[in-house]
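Private note to self, pasted from the team thread so I don't lose it. Backbone tokens:
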């Protein structure tokens, strides 16, 4: 199948499935959105056909589309909606890529359907005004995320360096080489974690900033299209159609405010989150990893041999229990269960590396 015929069939199938979704949808507002999107897809298909010329007619829905409809009838149409979301993302990404390569301006129509479907997919039950708060993006709980990062960062540092220290201790019988290797492991791991965190935060910020700029370009190039899609998103959230279009029109009177609303409603981006410092995140990551990694290393500053190894195991076991206990803040499990489970897994990892180190040490000595 040629690229043009494939695109035509994709539009026909999307229009067919949107129509089936509209028929199955109980909420009139959502059904209306699906019907309008079906009409738009059929319009795209007709435009493709017109470019081909001749007396050709639109092809019937493909076997894949009909099969998806049967699946929807049996198991519910949420699966079909998810498939359509993936399809719309692929189409929009391809269109954006092609237009950027050719130097053509973005019109704002490339991602309309993705944005509308995203709003619908965020629904947790019925789409109505009483449930609007459920559609808000989950970009909150910053304090909880920070606590989770602290616990996991400390755990990474403790387990990785505990295993390293025990491996070297097994090979050297706990002599001075352990302190050097453990310190090197602490610095290498902490720097790696810090760099990874910096790249993660910086990349996310750059991605969001680029998406926000694209949204501004769409707003400037096609304000009518942005107003319509914003209204459709509000309709999908349960706002009456007339009120939704009135709200969208009012928002669009102020370009700056309109951009802020579109970024939040369509992209799910909270501009406040972009103010976080990548360097600050890297420093915190470095410190949290280092705190965990230094625990098994402390005894080797003032002791050697079996005493240092025993103290390192004891300190690390205590640290692992505390970390396991802290994890219950997120899991709700028993403190004792979570704490001892963490100790067990940590000691198993250290025992394995100690045994390997012992074998290597014996082999070298022999």
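Design output:
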């Amino acid at each position: 199948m040629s690229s043009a015929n494939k695109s035509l069939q994709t539009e026909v199938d999307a229009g067919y499935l949107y129509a089936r979704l509209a028929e199955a949808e109980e909420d009139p507002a959502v059904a209306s959105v699906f019907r309008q999107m079906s009409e738009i897809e059929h319009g795209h298909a007709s435009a493709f056909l017109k470019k081909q010329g001749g007396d050709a007619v639109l092809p019937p829905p493909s076997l894949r589309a009909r099969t998806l409809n049967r699946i929807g009838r049996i198991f519910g149409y949420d699966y079909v909606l998810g498939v359509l979301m993936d399809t719309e993302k692929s189409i929009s990404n391809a269109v954006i890529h092609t237009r950027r390569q050719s130097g053509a301006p973005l019109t704002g129509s490339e991602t309309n359907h993705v944005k509308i479907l995203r709003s619908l997919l965020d629904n947790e039950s019925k789409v109505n005004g009483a449930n609007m708060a459920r559609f808000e993006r989950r970009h909150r709980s910053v304090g909880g995320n920070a606590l989770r990062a602290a616990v996991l960062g400390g755990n990474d540092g403790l387990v990785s360096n505990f295993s390293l220290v025990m491996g070297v201790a097994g090979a050297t019988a706990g002599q001075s080489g352990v302190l050097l290797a453990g310190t090197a492991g602490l610095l290498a791991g902490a720097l790696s974690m810090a760099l990874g965190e910096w790249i993660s935060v910086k990349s996310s910020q750059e991605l969001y900033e680029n998406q926000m700029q694209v949204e501004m370009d769409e707003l400037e190039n096609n304000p009518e299209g942005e107003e319509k899609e914003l209204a459709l998103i509000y309709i999908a959230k349960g706002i009456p159609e007339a009120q939704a279009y009135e709200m969208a029109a009012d928002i669009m009177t102020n370009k700056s405010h309109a951009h802020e609303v579109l970024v939040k409603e369509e992209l799910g981006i909270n501009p406040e989150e972009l103010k976080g410092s990548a360097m600050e995140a890297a420093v915190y990551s470095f410190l949290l990893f280092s705190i965990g990694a230094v625990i098994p290393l402390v005894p080797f500053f003032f002791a050697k041999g079996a005493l240092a190894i025993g103290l390192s195991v004891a300190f690390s076991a205590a640290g692992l229990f505390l970390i396991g206990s802290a994890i219950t803040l997120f899991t709700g499990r028993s403190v004792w269960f979570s704490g001892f489970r963490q100790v067990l897994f940590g000691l198993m990892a250290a025992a394995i590396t100690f045994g390997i180190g012992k074998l290597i040490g014996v082999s070298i000595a022999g």
